[in-house]
Design goal:
The protein is an all-alpha fold. The chain has a single domain (about 30-190), classed as Heme Oxygenase, Chain A, CATH 1.20.910.10. The protein is about 60% helix and about 0% strand. The radius of gyration is 16 Å and the shape is globular. Bound molecules: protoporphyrin IX containing FE.
C-alpha cells in the first residue's frame, strides 16, 4: 500500500453504505434519543461501544503515518466522559473491541470513514443535545465539532483517505469495513435503544 493519489474511496463508501446509513438514522431517530436525558444516555451507550471498537486505530502507527493527525481525532475518551457527566455507568460489552494491536489496514480505513463521517452528521445531533442543556463541556463532548470546524475537518480527512492507494482486493476489504461498521452500530442500537 502506498500513498499516491487515487481518489474516490469516500464517494464509493458513501454510495455503498447509503441505504444502511438511512436505516440507521431512521432507527436512531425512531427511538427519540433527544426526548430526555435518559434516552440520550442510551444513545451514548451505543456511541461508547462503537468508539471503543475503533479506539485502537487512533493509536496505530501505520494509520497515523497514512493519516497525519489521526491520533487527535479519536472520540472514545469524550464519549466515556459524556456518560460520566450524566452519572451513567460505562457499558461492559461481552465482546472485545473490533480492533486491537494487529489490524487489517484496508478494513480499518472503511471503519474510520464511518467514524469520522458520523462527526459530520453529528451537527444535527449536537444541536438537539443543546435542547437538553448538553454541550461540548458537558454530556455532548463527543458530538462537538473538531477545533478546525466540522466541514473543513471532514474535507481534510476525506482527502487523506482518498489519497491512499488500494488494489482491488484491498478496496473490497475497505468496503466491507465501512458496511460492517454501520451494521455494528445498528446492532448496538437494537441492544441499547429498544423500541417497544
Ligand atoms: C452513530 C450513528 C451514525 C453514524 C455512524 C453515521 C455515519 C455517517 C457518515 C459516515 C456520514 C458521512 C457520509 C458522507 O458524506 O460520506 C454521515 C453524514 C450524515 N449523517 Fe450520519 N451517522 C450516524 C447517525 C446519524 C443520525 C442519527 C442522523 C440524523 C438524523 C445522521 C445524519 C447525517 C447527515 C444529515 C449527514 C450528512 C451531513 C452533511 O452532508 O452535512 N446521522 N453520517
Amino acid at each position: 500500500m502506498t500513498t499516491t493519489v487515487s481518489p474516490g474511496h469516500c464517494a464509493r463508501f458513501r454510495a455503498l453504505t447509503h441505504d444502511t446509513h438511512d436505516v440507521l438514522d431512521k432507527r436512531i431517530m425512531a427511538y427519540s434519543p433527544f426526548s430526555g436525558r435518559e434516552r440520550y444516555a442510551a444513545f451514548l451507550k451505543v456511541q461508547y461501544c462503537f468508539h471503543r471498537d475503533v479506539a485502537a486505530l487512533f493509536d496505530n502507527t501505520s494509520l497515523n503515518t497514512l493519516l497525519p493527525g489521526l491520533k487527535e481525532r479519536g472520540r472514545f475518551a469524550a464519549v466515556a466522559q459524556d456518560l460520566k457527566d450524566l452519572g451513567q455507568a460505562l457499558p461492559e460489552p461481552e465482546m472485545p473491541p473490533v480492533f486491537g494491536e494487529q489490524i487489517d489496514l484496508p478494513t480499518a480505513i472503511g471503519w474510520l470513514y464511518v467514524e469520522e463521517g458520523s462527526n459530520l452528521g453529528g451537527a444535527i445531533l449536537f444541536k438537539m443535545a443543546g435542547k437538553l442543556d448538553l454541550s461540548a463541556d458537558f454530556g455532548a463532548r463527543h458530538l462537538a465539532p473538531h477545533p478546525e470546524g466540522r466541514a473543513p475537518s471532514w474535507r481534510a480527512f476525506m482527502q487523506q483517505l482518498d489519497a491512499i492507494e488500494l488494489d482491488d482486493k484491498e478496496q473490497q476489504r475497505a468496503n466491507n469495513g465501512a458496511e460492517a461498521a454501520f451494521t455494528q452500530v445498528l446492532s448496538y442500537v437494537e441492544r441499547y435503544c429498544p423500541i417497544s
